[in-house]
């Protein structure tokens, strides 16, 4: 028996994922999205992509990958990428960042623009929008915008609905839940939907941070790029950070995840504290 085939069978599942298939999947998702998958992600890769194989009536990962290779423009590439994207998120996750954003924009007399670069299913961009409402007041907040992007089209489709389990919404506190969400009734009991004034502040767009060009317009008062760079290697991180420079206002904030540190990757940003960065003096535009 071929050693790769034996490894796939030994993996303990009904579909055959060989070592060669796994290496090819890792290469394809890196080329397409910059995501680095290590050996300990093999179980995750199997469980997520096995659903795609079963949907297409396939029993072999090699056959699935060959079909992808023959059809570079196929919609299945989108499903492949979505399947391998992680979407762990919550309202006001890493809560210390939101008061920092509020303090940064307090007293503004012009609309504020914030980019959420890993929007997932919407909890983070809606949390940013709520923070702007609280910091700016309803009139100026209604003119402000949160540009929310993600590579995962399935996650973005959910985010655009603004509908979440009521239990999840109530975790942010009764006062915020009442102010910014409507409770569902009838068939929608147990759910809550973001109020229209909140949803109107957020624009959702698909964007791949690994792309050479980004189809959004800056500059932004703050960029939230939290818990996504950990999936990229250091060259990709450095490239993205360099690209961020032209999208951030001179006094803008780059807000990152608790496990991400860029001080030794880029000279364009300096740590302000609590995983918040500002542009270095060398990176700021000269008068």
Automatic annotation (TrEMBL):
The keyword Transferase applies. Pfam families: CheR, CheR_N. The keyword Transferase applies. S-adenosyl-L-methionine binds at residues 87, 89, 93, 124, 150, 208-209, 226-227. One of its GO terms (molecular function) is protein-glutamate O-methyltransferase activity. Its EC number is 2.1.1.80. GO terms for biological process: methylation. Residues 10-282 form the CheR-type methyltransferase domain. InterPro entries: Bact_Chemotaxis_MeTrfase, Chemotaxis_MeTrfase_CheR, CheR_C, CheR_MeTrfase, CheR_N, CheR_N_sf, SAM-dependent_MTases_sf. Keywords: Methyltransferase, S-adenosyl-L-methionine, Transferase. It catalyses: L-glutamyl-[protein] + S-adenosyl-L-methionine = [protein]-L-glutamate 5-O-methyl ester + S-adenosyl-L-homocysteine. It is an enzyme of class 2 (transferase). Methylation of the membrane-bound methyl-accepting chemotaxis proteins (MCP) to form gamma-glutamyl methyl ester residues in MCP. This is Chemotaxis protein methyltransferase. It comes from Pseudomonas linyingensis.
């Amino acid at each position: 028996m071929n050693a790769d085939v034996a490894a796939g069978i030994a993996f303990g599942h009904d579909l055959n994922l060989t070592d060669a298939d796994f290496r090819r999947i890792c290469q394809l998702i890196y080329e397409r999205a910059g995501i680095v998958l290590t050996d300990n992600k093999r179980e995750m890769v199997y469980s997520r992509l096995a659903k795609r194989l079963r949907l297409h009536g396939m029993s072999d990962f090699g056959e699935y990958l060959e079909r992808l290779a023959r059809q570079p423009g196929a919609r299945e590439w989108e499903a492949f990428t979505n399947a391998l994207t992680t979407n762990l998120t919550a309202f006001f996750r890493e809560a210390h960042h939101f008061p920092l954003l509020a303090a940064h924009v307090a007293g503004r007399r012009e609309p504020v623009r914030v980019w959420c670069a890993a929007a997932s299913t919407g909890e983070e961009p809606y949390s940013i929008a709520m923070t702007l409402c609280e910091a700016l007041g309803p009139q100026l907040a209604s003119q402000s915008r949160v540009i929310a992007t993600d590579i995962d089209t399935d996650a973005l489709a959910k985010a655009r609905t603004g509908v979440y389990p009521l239990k999840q919404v109530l975790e942010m506190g009764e006062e915020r839940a009442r102010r910014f969400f409507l409770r569902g009734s009838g068939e929608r009991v147990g759910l809550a939907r973001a109020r229209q004034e909140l949803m109107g502040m957020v624009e959702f767009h698909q964007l791949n941070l690994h792309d050479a060009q980004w189809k959004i317009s800056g500059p932004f008062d703050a960029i939230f790029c939290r818990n996504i760079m950990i999936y990229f290697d250091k060259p990709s991180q450095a490239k993205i950070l360099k690209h961020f420079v032209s999208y951030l206002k001179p006094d803008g904030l780059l807000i990152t995840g608790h496990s991400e540190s860029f001080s030794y990757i880029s000279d364009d940003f300096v740590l302000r504290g609590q995983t918040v960065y500002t542009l270095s003096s060398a990176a700021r535009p000269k008068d």
